[in-house]
Amino acid sequence: MAVNTISANQVQQMFARNQFSLIIDLRDYYDYTRGHLPNAINIPTNQILDRINEIQPYRNGNILLYCQYGVQSVSVGKVLMINGFRRVYSLNGGLDYYNYPLY
């Protein structure tokens, strides 16, 4: 069971084809408000298990996770997969490697 790690370019291609059912920013709320990916919701890493029921409807869709450096998103992705989520993606290198506009 492995989380799919994808590059910023691959994220952009999937955005263009509207292939993500859910995008989760795992950073804290302050960082989220300073800029995030389009349509991303904010669920900080330390809240993911408390809020897992909130995202259950998306468990069969493509879910993109990202954090600042790409480490937490892989860890959270594994947690989601253990909890029945099927197609989980992590932004490789996190926002540090994302050279596209934030919202």
From TrEMBL:
**Which PROSITE patterns did the record assign?**
RHODANESE_3
| InterPro entries (UniProt xref) | GlpE_sulfurtransferase, Rhodanese-like_dom, Rhodanese-like_dom_sf
Residues annotated as domain Rhodanese: 22-100
Q: Which domain of life is it from?
A: Bacteria
Signal peptide stretch: none
- Stretches that traverse the bilayer: none
How is this protein named in the record?
A: Rhodanese-like domain-containing protein
Q: Which organism is it from?
A: Intestinibacter bartlettii
